[in-house]
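[step 3/7] fold_predict: job queued, chain A
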Amino acid sequence: MPISNHQRQERRAAARRAFVATDDVPDAVPRPPGRGPRNHFWDPRSPGVWRHNESNEPYQSRAARLASARGRHAAAVRGRRWSRINAARCTAAPVLARRWTSAEKTASLWGPDSAKIARAS
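[step 4/7] structure written:
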């Protein structure tokens, strides 16, 4: 949502006051030249970092973010791999073993009419 002119003026005034206030702070770290990261402000307190406007978290470069994400992803993959190593191959309910009757065994070997033939003879 866009901000009003009044809010913009207040923010600029606060930034000017903060910039002037760092002049008399002995351990203030000077702001680096050039533009800062989007949605971040310069925190002059030691060690001097860019901080996010809303969360106040220190800025991480893209390389640092990717490196930490790479490590987290690899650990998660390893965890999933080892937890699923002996898992069933399908998600269906397991087939419960049951005892077959001799007629069912005969039928499975010789066809459905074999039990009748075996009884008749």
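[step 5/7] annotate
The first strand starts at residue 40 and ends at 43.
The chain is about 45% helix and 5% strand.
exit 0
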